[in-house]
Amino acid sequence: MTVDLLLGLQWGDEGKGKIVDVLTSKYDIIARFQGGPNAGHTLEFDGIKHVLRTIPSGIFHKNSINIIGNGVVIDPVVFIKEIEGLEKFNIDIYSKLLISRKAHLILPTHRLLDAASEASKGKAKIGSTLKGIGPTYMDKTGRNGIRVGDIELADFEERYRNLANKHEEMIKFHDVSIQYNLTELEKEFFDAVSQLKKLTFIDSEEYLHQAQKEGKSILCEGAQGSLLDVDFGTYPFVTSSNTTAAGACTGLGIAPNKIKEVYGIFKAYTTRVGSGPFPTEDFGDAGDTMAKVGNEFGSVTGRQRRCGWLDLVALKYAIRVNGVTQLMMMKGDVLSGFDTLKVCTSYQYKGQNIDHLPYNIEPENVEPVYTEFKGWQADLTGMSSYDQLPKELKEYIDFIEKEVEVPITIVSVGPDRKQTITK
Q: Is 41 labeled as catalytic in the residue annotation?
């Protein structure tokens, strides 16, 4: 029996979907433990690019069972469209995909409430994707939420109506102008719910407990990144769930002492979407080049990502919080062609040099201290073994391993599942 965990160590968009896809053949079950449809996991193989929003990244492997855990929030409309997009690949969705009854539902009014709340903030916007995820988690913690299991109850529509009415009153409170046709949105929602009923709902904590007893191997898949964790991220510019390792326990019902390997995914540089502090952001040619070469646009939102140098202070923080045992470095190929690379190894913070992440990393408080490296010119995308990698890249990897005290076991040199080098 194996329970391993895979998560992102930066501000999301690290390439988790690709690595889950690469690792899936080793596991019987892939289980998503938090987040909502704002998290796009991109997989590329056989010349086709796939973007998953809610469905775990193991869905393309015929022998794996995929579970959406209780920590996830599900928008039935988005979810059914995602399933329809997979139909042409002849995937047996109805036997391969299981949903926790305890997962919460995103209602149309959650999305409207999200838009109203964000509009009311003016220049203080958090950068919400407006998918209704924040308001759904607020209802969850406020004990008002509607869960997947409620769909099976006779009074489901009454429960829906009561919560939707409450949301409409809250929308009025924000006193902003947003245009919507709730009748139309609700028809789409209830049509999607009727489709959702065709899938198998499970008590996922019991299912996973039995799977462990039977010796099944499980990979827990996280969404977003550790620096977006609602507790340990750059609050308030964070997501609404626990994206760190602890979220796998609460989002699936798996005990902490059952988790063995914790795979941490990070880019060879750093990106961030939306608002919030970003100490190593590069506003010049280097940042523009990273964005262009790395195709740094959100797989779901299409938003351009802010780009900058690798921040080892933040990376070490995420490694410690998550108990990472293995690292996987993504997009090493994007840094090809730079004459000089920079890595942040400490911060100047209130007149002191520190190597830990402080409470506040706003630019007026933090200035990154860099170590420079010689870059490499070689095209990495056709390389298939670690020996082929340029000496400068190996030195870059060695330095990171020494600083963070965790081995880098995989280096990604392109988006395709074949462009993955095991060290």
A: yes
